[in-house]
Amino acid sequence: MELFILFSLLISLAATFSYINVRYIKLPSGISLMLMSTVAALGVILVGHFSTGFGDMVRQKLALIDFSEFLLGILLSFLLFAGSLHVQLPDLRKEAKSITVFAVFGTLISTFLVGFLVFLLLRISQQEIPLIYCLLFGALISPTDPIAVMGILKKANLSKSVETNIVGESLFNDGIGVVVFATLLQIATVGIEHFGAADIALLFVEEAIGGLLVGLIIGFLGYRFMKSIDHFQTEILISLAMVMGGYSLCHFIHVSGPLAMVVAGIMTGNRGKALAMSDVTRDYLGKFWEVTDEVLNAILFLLIGLEIIVVKFEVNFLFVGFATAMLLVVARFISLFLPAFSFGFKKELSTKTLTIMTWGGLRGGISIALALSLPPSPFKDVIVSITFIVVLFSILVQGLTIDKLIKRILPGPIRA
């Protein structure tokens, strides 16, 4: 009952903040919710200085929700599936080469580049952290968050090509990033001497390729079941079973659940909608997942801001966090430019487009969840603190200015 009351309060807060935003502020919903919840969290911390009991009570209640488990184990499956439903397969095929290269090679380049840069930055600031933990930070912070990205881009008037690249890359590099993170975490746990190159390659292939294959199977089965009936209530239940049952299966057989949900969502949103659903089902299923996406997004962004109350936030890492946020922007551009140049599609994606993809590559709840999922160590609090600062900078600064950047560097006909 206590957990139900907590979620009731979260939904009430989300509804209140959303109303204030729609009525007065008129920012993208994710940014406004995170901004207001961050202000509320800072207010709670301030009041807690004068009333220790109040601050402890709020922390105790919020601690009932394991943010990492809640996002990675529950929310992520719904949000990735819902986001993938809107991706058009013809557009995805057209940009398949660049999306694949950015998602795989771009994520790997960014992981190691960010890891080494943060390692040097921490040494300069006299904070000694083993390189493997800096690489873990690179892995958890490099993937752009599809939830944050899609929420911000809803109001951006981008060309179809640019939008498909940003959204497609963010959906797939999320899954790749989680796989890279899991691989590096295993190396950090058992030691590199017990985990050779063949083991790394095998784990990566099992997680990534396995996730894609399971996603295809889930999508195909869902398509066949929906095609054989015409009953929108049951077909919505089937889509829920695909998400919940499919994600649980991925966890059980140790393959990438995020990649599986992206593939299953794309299949359902394209082949399923076109060939397996009536107009009525298509309308109801689309609206059901749109509402689900909005509600869960609201809870997620609200929790990101409120998590500041719960985590052991180290104020002395503010400088390192902001410096890392700046380094991450540079690393993001390099991790896009090098693959684009090396694989021969730099002419198709101009420097201006890569700049938009760089600034529009937002980090969000997934990075925080991965940081919080790290096992206890002397370095966890440092990583969590820096991750929070980078995510706050990404969503509040980059998210608020991406639309202005698009209007500034791209002419109207290219945007529209």
Automatic annotation (TrEMBL):
Localization per record: Cell membrane
Keywords for the protein's UniProt record, in alphabetical order: Antiport, Cell membrane, Ion transport, Membrane, Sodium, Sodium transport, Transmembrane, Transmembrane helix, Transport
Family membership: Belongs to the monovalent cation:proton antiporter 1 (CPA1) transporter (TC 2.A.36) family.
Pfam families according to UniProt: Na_H_Exchanger
Entry's transmembrane regions: 28-50, 62-87, 99-122, 129-152, 172-192, 204-226, 246-267, 288-311, 317-341, 353-376, 382-402
PANTHER family noted in UniProt: NA(+)_H(+) ANTIPORTER NHAS2 (PTHR10110:SF195), SODIUM/HYDROGEN EXCHANGER (PTHR10110)
Protein's name in the database: Sodium/proton antiporter, CPA1 family
UniProt domain Cation/H+ exchanger transmembrane: residue ranges: 13-405
InterPro entries membership: Cation/H_exchanger_CPA1, Cation/H_exchanger_TM
GO term, biological process aspect, one: regulation of intracellular pH
Gene3D superfamilies: 6.10.140.1330
One GO MF term: potassium:proton antiporter activity
One Gene Ontology cellular component annotation held by this UniProt entry: plasma membrane
